[in-house]
Specification:
Blueprint lengths: L10 H12 L6 E5 L6 H12 L15 E4 L2 E4 L2 E4 H6 L12 H11 L9 E5 L7 H12 L4 E7 L7 H4 L3 E4 L5 H10 L9 H7 L3 H12 L3 H7 L6 H14 L2 H17 L4 H15 L4 H13 L1
Parallel strand pairs: 1-6, 1-7, 2-5, 5-6
Antiparallel strand pairs: 3-4
C-alpha cells in the first residue's frame, strides 16, 4: 500500500517526496509550508512511513526508535506540556506555546547516536514558527551537520521562520484543497455533516483541519443564540438582549470566532459592506480588551439603526 494514499489534494508534495525516496535522494532537511489543516503533518507521517518502510516490522512510526518528534510546549510546574496535554489537563495558559532551547538540545542528543533500525534518523519540528530565538539559532548548527538524518520543519510559510533556516531546507509547498478534495476528505473522515454548513466551508478556505475546528466552535454556540445573531435585531431591546447573551454564554476566543462566522454569513447573504465593517470594528475592540458586552451592544444597535 502506498503510504501517501491518505494524503488527499497534494499531488505535487506526494510526487516530490516519493521520487526522493525512489531515487535515494532524500535531502538532509525539508521545509513543509502551507496554511494550517491542509495535510502537512499527515504528509510528514506518510513520508516517514516510506523512509522507514523496510525497518518498521511490527512497529508503527509512533514508537520507532529512529524518529524524534518535537512540537511547541507550555511550561507548567516544572514540566513541559504539549498543547494536547495542556488541553487534557484543562490548563488555561496566557503565554503561547513555544519550541524551547532544551528541546533543540534533545534533538542534538538524539542525533549523537547512529540509527538503530532505519537507514537514517528523522526529526520532525511541528509549528517551527513558534520556536524561541535561542532555539532557532541552536537549530542552525544541526541543520548544517545533520549526520545520517533528515529533519522536517513544518511552518505556515517561509516568511514565518528565520531565512537562515529556510535556506538550509528543501521546500515542499502544500496548497489549500479544491472543493472536490475537501468533500472527499470530509466524507472519508466521517464528517459529512460539515458539508451542510457552507459558511464553515467558506471560512475554512480549503483547509479540512480548519473546517473541523470551526465546526466544533459552532457546537459551542447555543442554537437559539446563533439564530438570533444571524439576522439584524428588530428592536433596541433585542439588540441589547443579544449582546447580553453573547457576553454571558461565550468566552472571548469564541466571540472572536463568531465575528469571523458572522462576517462570512452576512456576506454570503448579500449584506451591505457596512455591517461587515461593524463586525470588524467589534473584533478590534475585543482585541483591545474593551468590555465585551458593551462592544456587542454597540455593534447590534448600529445594525438596527
Amino acid at each position: 500500500m502506498n503510504p501517501f494514499t491518505p494524503l488527499i489534494g497534494q499531488p505535487q508534495a506526494v510526487e516530490l517526496l516519493t521520487q526522493a525516496v525512489a531515487k535515494n535522494r532524500i535531502a538532509p532537511a525539508y521545509l513543509f509550508t502551507g496554511t494550517p489543516g491542509i495535510g502537512k503533518v499527515l504528509g510528514a507521517k506518510c513520508f516517514i512511513e516510506l523512509i522507514f518502510a523496510d525497518s518498521k516490522q511490527q512497529q508503527t512510526i509512533n514508537n520507532h526508535p529512529d524518529l524524534f518528534w518535537v512540537e511547541p510546549t507550555y511550561q507548567h510546574q516544572g514540566q513541559r506540556l504539549t498543547i494536547a496535554e495542556a488541553t487534557a489537563k484543562g490548563l488555561k495558559r496566557k503565554a503561547p506555546p513555544v519550541i524551547r532551547l532544551e528541546q533543540i538540545r534533545e534533538i542534538t542528543q538524539f542525533l549523537s547516536r547512529p540509527p538503530l533500525k532505519a537507514p537514517r534518523q528523522v526529526v520532525v519540528l511541528s509549528d517551527v514558527d513558534k520556536m524561541a530565538e535561542a532555539g532557532a539559532n541552536a537549530l542552525l548548527k544541526t541543520l548544517e551537520e545533520p549526520g545520517k538524518a533528515t529533519l522536517i520543519l513544518i511552518a505556515p510559510s517561509p516568511d514565518s521562520i528565520l531565512s537562515t533556516l529556510v535556506s538550509r531546507c528543501q521546500r515542499i509547498p502544500f496548497y489549500s484543497l479544491d472543493t472536490q478534495a475537501m468533500v472527499q476528505v470530509l466524507q472519508q473522515t466521517g464528517h459529512e455533516e460539515i458539508l451542510q454548513h457552507p459558511t464553515i466551508l467558506n471560512i475554512a478556505a480549503g483547509s479540512p483541519g480548519k473546517a473541523l475546528a470551526y465546526h466544533q466552535q459552532l457546537q459551542n454556540i447555543p442554537s437559539e443564540l446563533l439564530a438570533a445573531v444571524t439576522e439584524p435585531p428588530r428592536t433596541y431591546r433585542q439588540a441589547l438582549e443579544i449582546a447580553k447573551q453573547i457576553d454571558k454564554s461565550l468566552d472571548t476566543e469564541t466571540q472572536l470566532w463568531l465575528i469571523d462566522y458572522l462576517q462570512q454569513f452576512y456576506w454570503q447573504n448579500g449584506c451591505q459592506p457596512a455591517i461587515i465593517q461593524e463586525f470588524e470594528q467589534a473584533r478590534k475592540s475585543l482585541l483591545c480588551y474593551a468590555q465585551p458586552r458593551l462592544v456587542w451592544e454597540c455593534t447590534f444597535l448600529k445594525m438596527y439603526v
